[in-house]
Amino acid sequence: MALLEIRNISRSFGAFTAVKDVSFDVSSGEFFTLLGPSGCGKTTILRMIAGFDLPDAGQILLDGRDLVATPAERRPIHTVFQSYALFPHLTVGQNVAFPLRMAGVNETELRRRVADTLEQVHLAELAEHYPHEISGGQKQRVALARGLVNRPRLLLLDEPLGALDLKLREEMQLELIKLQREVGVTFVFVTHAQPEALALSHRIAVMNQGRIEQLDEPSRLYSFPKNRFVADFIGNCNLLEAGVVEGQDGLLRLQAAGLGEILAPAREDVNVGDKGVLALRPEQVRIGAADALPPPFPKGGGGDFATPDDPGASENPPQPPFGKGGGNSFPGTVRDFLYVGDVTTYQVTLDNGQELAALRANDAPGRARFFEVGDRVTVSWAWDAGHFVRD
Ligand SMILES: Nc1ncnc2c1ncn2[C@@H]1O[C@H](COP(=O)(O)OP(=O)(O)OP(=O)(O)O)[C@@H](O)[C@H]1O
Ligand SMILES: [Mg+2]
User: Fold this and answer.
1) Distance separating alpha carbons of residues 10 and 211, to the nearest angstrom
2) For residue 242, which of 67, 147, 230, 346 sits 20 to 30 Å off, Cα-Cα?
3) pTM for this entry
């Protein structure tokens, strides 16, 4: 049975609906994330789980029991906020001890549990310091320790790393994963930073305007976004306007704006006539010099039809789908590029006007980039590299 069950909850403020019919389950020991842009309803959901607010409709169950009648302080749930909310006049140790004092835990037990928890977050040597004497990352750890010391069933974390600089934030992400694994507490984590969600979570609910757009494992969200919003929100993505012309034998034939007919893998929920976009990650797009031979893909582009499971397939490629070449290969000109050290993203204007981003690893020793603005290039992608998503 799921530890936490959210069943069809909604919450409105006046005429504005902040949370619309949201349902999800969280398993014991899971690192579950609510991800979405500012204002999509993440904090509102956390507040209802914590008991600071009540849903207008729907149910919240913990271990199968409805929490509606249980006030916040009686729920075995703790919330860690972005602002840390430490008591400035209490030491680190006293801050961590606070929830235990409120619960009336005896002094011996209290000391032992505070010491254990400070050890877990690597703060034992700072127990006597005051909040103004420690760094932002350390404050964050005190807030975490205070959340964990009571051994809650569920720890709710609302943008807990938001106030940290990037380097520290990445360090704390690794620590958070380790800590969650070690203490085995179930986490419901809130963030609007998608790389953070991908790095930390077992599963992610992507939210938009009060609804869940898709709930999945990070790699599935990234590789198989369900709709345009998710494709666009998770990572960088080329979105090529397209309509479905034909679908058969595991293939979709799409009419793409400016590109003509292109191929993509079929998906269950798509029908002929559907409009949407082909979602194509820049790292799936090959870029090569226009006059380079051989072209990036055999048969003039569109496909070596090899799959990771079947590396030998390119030696004996299957018949081109629909009796035609794959054709996902187009000439263009480099309009711009973004060099970030390990990789360069090239913005290419195809000859038909379509813009496409292609990412290339700077894997040749001493090479910072391969192409200059104005260079003639060919971009191509395997027929199964993109995914059609409906609007
Ligand atoms: N008490 C309230 N009264 C009126 N409107 C509210 C109230 N609480 C939240 N809202 C509105 O509900 C929407 C969702 O707010 P919420 O705080 O849940 O967003 P969020 O996803 O946490 O955003 P952020 O990433 O910026 O923290 C927002 O438009 C917000 O203005
Ligand atoms: Mg919020």
Assistant:
1) 9
2) 346
3) 0.84
